[in-house]
């Protein structure tokens, strides 16, 4: 157990809350999402699965490892070497980088149904590009979707309706303030594995439906005829099918997870793991839809820099040589098995969601959020970043999982005691974590 001495990290975050509205650029990296006033908001170095905070404390990362971006682990030597080389030769110029052509070719090789590619630098903007192309290609406005797809107006428009339509789609409480009210009715949600809900949207809006946007899977596998049913409904009404592989891409197999299901979209969108921590987003698809990028203006200066495509090529090269997906599945299974046994041993009810490569953890208890916050705070003392989700990386080894479980076992002993005594909040002594989008006060 370590002593809490200097606290440069916390004081910097207090400054940030004044200087940067919302504190950070990404909701999932707010300390409030883990343990308000306790979480080490900043890092000085990150290698493999180890992060060093500004006070020199080291943690093994058992959370989302760069929000799913660093599938190969932090600062993967091969990706870093390729990126450094590109930077030293100039990663930006008045001319284009050749790596983007190689990347287009590589992604199309991996997804033989696709014919063309466009690149951005982040997932949300890649989705916005895909939606724009679908709307341009069809001359239609409405998007049916399920799941989370970023911060753009096209998506948040769903929450302009009174019923907070997005609440069931990964992140609750997303406010559409600032999204033009005229977009109301242009983004309509349906539930995953609820083909009948999409069928109703197609029945009512099929002639104005530009696209169906969804992850091929996220937490649960598709029911046997779900994805093919979605494909059929799109074909029946002429809407484009867009698979969002921003989080799933490369994590379950080389390329997109949809390849496993044998249902091909009109477009697929990648980001996060594609650059292993370097910004790159990609939209790949059929020319019949992608060529719409020539009818509408889709263009940005930094979509032409060379680091993103270089990092993506190096990441894909590692994935071609090493069974990355097999490794993260194996690590995720060990993590889940360990939690299950720990829960049984300590009499704590643990709910594990998602897949081994993309696991969520909750305490099935009325004080679930407070218990998880206390767990996180105590795990920091043991040298672990830990919370309600674990996205394993190639850098995690079985011995890291063993060390995590040994520490978690000791912390859970205290959790059980705190449940018995009813003093979870008192032990915590700081606020409970947030569970969704909330204004920072
Ligand atoms: C499925 C999915 N789509 C889109 C996004 C948005 O990507 P980004 O945060 O890179 O803009 C995310 C981010 O979590 C995601 O999980």
Descriptive account of the structure:
- With about 450 residues, the chain is α/β, with parallel strands linked by helices.
- It folds into 2 domains: about 10-75 and about 325-430, Aspartate Aminotransferase, domain 1; about 75-320, 3-Layer(aba) Sandwich (Aspartate Aminotransferase, domain 2).
- About 40% of the residues lie in helices and about 15% in strands.
- It has 14 helices and 14 strands.
- It has a 7-stranded mixed sheet with strand order 4-10-9-8-7-5-6, sandwiched between helices. A 4-stranded mixed sheet has the order 1-2-3-13. It has a 3-stranded antiparallel sheet with strand order 11-12-14.
- It has helices spanning about 10-20, 75-90, 100-110, 125-140, 155, 195-205, 225-235, 260, 285-290, 305-320, 325-345, 370-380, 400-420, 425-430, and strands at about 45, 50-55, 60, 115-120, 140-145, 185-190, 210-215, 240-245, 265-270, 280-285, 350-355, 360-365, 385, 390.
- Bound molecules: pyridoxal-5'-phosphate.
- The site of pyridoxal-5'-phosphate (PLP) has 13 residues, from helix 4.
- Class computed from helices, strands and strand pairing: alpha/beta
Q: Ligands in the structure?
A: pyridoxal-5'-phosphate
Distance between the termini: 32 Å
| Strand arrangement in the largest pleated sheet | 4-10-9-8-7-5-6
Q: Which value, in Å, is the CA radius of gyration?
A: 22 Å
Q: What does the largest sheet look like? A: 7 strands, mixed
CATH topology descriptor of the largest domain: Aspartate Aminotransferase, domain 2
Mean pLDDT level: 95
How would you summarize this macromolecular structure in one to three sentences?
The protein is of the alpha/beta class. Helices cover 38% and strands 14% of the residues.
